[in-house]
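Hello,

Following up on my earlier ticket. Below are the two sequence lines again, exactly as submitted.
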Amino acid sequence: MKIDREEARRIAGLARLELDDAALVRMAGEMTKILTYIDQLREVDVEGFEEHSDSTATPFREDVTRHSLDQELVERNAPAWSDGFFVVPKVIGGE
Amino acid sequence: MSDLLELPWHEARTQASPREYLDACLAAIEARDPQLHAFLHVNREAAGEGRPIAIKDNIVTTDMPTTCASRILGDFVSPFDATVIARLRANGASIVGKTNLDEFAMGSSTEHSAFGPTRNPWDPNCVAGGSSGGSAAAVAARMVPAALGSETGGSVRQPAALCGVVGVKPTYGRVSRWGLVAFASGLDQIGIVTKTVRESAEVLGVIAGHDEMDSTSSAHPVDDYTADLDTGVRGLRFGVVREAVEMLAGEVRENFDAAIATLRGAGAIVEEVSVPTIGYAIAVYYIVANAEASANLSRFDGIRYGRRSPEARTLEEVYADSRGEGFGAEVKRRIMLGTFALSSGYYDAYYGRAQRVRARMRHDFAQAFAKFDLLITPTTPEPAFPIGAKTDDPLSMYLSDIFTAPANLIGVPAIAVPSGFSRSGLPLSLQITAPHFAERAMFQAAAGYERETGYWKAVTGLLGY
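Thanks for your patience. The regenerated structure is below:
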């Protein structure tokens, strides 16, 4: 599988990763090499084996209210915080 | 001081008070860690009546920062302890420090740490392995008697092998992951590094068990993992994975043949078995693990914790710039590969295909375990490599995990046990893999092999101890 710079740019956009042109070119080359290795999976006979074959289901817990983190503990790690809210740049009606 | 730290914990505790032992650990860290860089934080105020233990820095603690060896977490300090930390503290353990790792546990050499590599105690020009390289080096250099790491594709067993110590990956779901920073949730499991098999079995007994905070943790009863440590390997049936042996060369092959002879000499039945899909483990792993990672790491966005880019003006830039500046090259590579594998038009060809090969691999292992109690391979295809040797070639780095990744993909437990040395004096390692929740038999086999060989008693000469 060949990844070119424009495909790398599209994927970086989906992944919300800022990469400059030089980084995109390098990334495209590395991804091409790794995906070429991964393409050997095409040779495996997987007839009869399904994508979701693990039978162990994750059990649900009871839906009960529990104490969660105190706001002051959350605020301590927040990059921007005001009056109990995370602060972000204006989303609606901004520039 | 040094003599005390050479003893297994159950012997050391009869010879020194907990305070004396803890002080010996802290003194050893001060003397040895400047050369090795196994630790990212040391808690000199640590206290406890039990076993001192070091913790990989992607497991959260309230009394020290958690960095995941990444710049993106900034000066993050967790508001809660991971379940394993709470259980260790309740058992009296002293949490003496947080150990170095590849950023977000993504790597096989600890060179992808934002804070610089950990060095191998046997040869400081070589890597300690990874991603739990700090935990393995800390135990190998006898700075602590035990450390926790985490596994997604071999990140405890591989560095344990390269550093000449015991490394354990329990069954998927055996240990709660509440408070382990998620990499690939379908594969991640907390693991243990110690000098001896017994010490790993003891630590697993403390941290194993169901936890209501991790719905994937199993309600399967916790065994007495030390019960069969003195039973030996007589009568146990070991399957030698043929496709793995075919990949071996030189002294690793010779060392593995010697391990087989040792097991046979001790009364074990050792025969070849075929696991045809084992060679595809790395290809499957790098799709499945990265796909999950690309989703899990979306939480690092500069909004709720960690570092926000000072350049960002719009919300979109907060995300993309914080992540672009905060993540290192390997983490970006994996997020990109995972995002690609899940993206529209490629999902079936990559993620879907990898999951189907994984299903076949699960079937192949089940067939092998129908005939054998345990499976054996070397833990790694080669001993520790020089620092810098593989950093420009991601694929060759990935292949260091060829024998360890299968256990993560199918969820079974496995252990790395020292099996001797290369001609250049670097540790080699035997891997023993057991069926789901058969940790007790795994520890029995590993302890039996360890008793026949005793390689754990060899210690490094690097630091004059």
